[in-house]
Amino acid sequence: MTLEGKRAVVTGGTSGIGRATATRFCEAGASVVVASRSEDAGRQVAEELGCEFFQTDVREYDQVVDLVEYAVETLGGLDVLVNNAGIGSVTSVEEMELEEWDAVIATDLTGVMHGTKAALPHLRDSGGCIVNVASIYGLVGGHGAASYSAAKGGVVNFTQQVAIDYARDGIRVNSVCPGFVDTPMTDDLLESERFQSFLQTNTPMNRAAQPEEIAPVIAFLASDDASYVTGANVPVDGGWTAH
Ligand code: NAI
Hints:
By secondary structure, the protein is of the alpha/beta class. Helices cover 46% and strands 14% of the residues.
């Protein structure tokens, strides 16, 4: 599987799944712009991977437009957008502050729409594609995760909707739906014995994933090997949604 010649943007590309994806893309021959809010982390990752960095908060549409314009100018066009940036939340609807709902929806759902809206004209030019990072909690309800499940469920259906609207323009749109992955987002959770027991009970493979086990699926969906795949929400979950 190659991404030779592909010009890609990965949001939230400085840690976890985004960083593993940017690494995998670079190894497969893609030119990459990683986007994140932190300038220090962004510059460091760009230097380590030999890619570009653009400081972006995905909640702000103008910043996402600037990111896409930067990628198009620097890389000479855009073939792949990975809408990966996100924040977690494990609060039930009664316990949740309204600010938390707004923050999660703004980042995890509206951020995906911002990237999609900004990238589509360029993806039409290149016959490119989008890969969204959703979650198992977009496919099934997430225990005690009201805003996160709502946002990721939105991403799953948005993926299908945009795929339908733009298939005739030659643009493919898919998502991956990871189970629990060992990243900075889940550090605290994975340290808890109670959570480990919950995870193992619900995951037939009996463990969390490493980000490097999610990145190859994203890379496949971004590659020409997936030329007939669109509107798919692909579980990468150790069997969570199968049982
Ligand atoms: P992470 O915390 O390592 O990475 C998230 C990245 O998004 C960070 O680089 C962070 O700075 C960035 N980010 C957050 N808000 C942003 C904003 N407003 N603008 C720009 N960048 C922003 O966590 P992880 O796990 O790698 O998460 C990546 C994606 O994977 C997220 O969408 C998450 O919801 C999803 N996911 C994670 C799972 C897990 O168990 N870790 C499971 C399923 C999905």
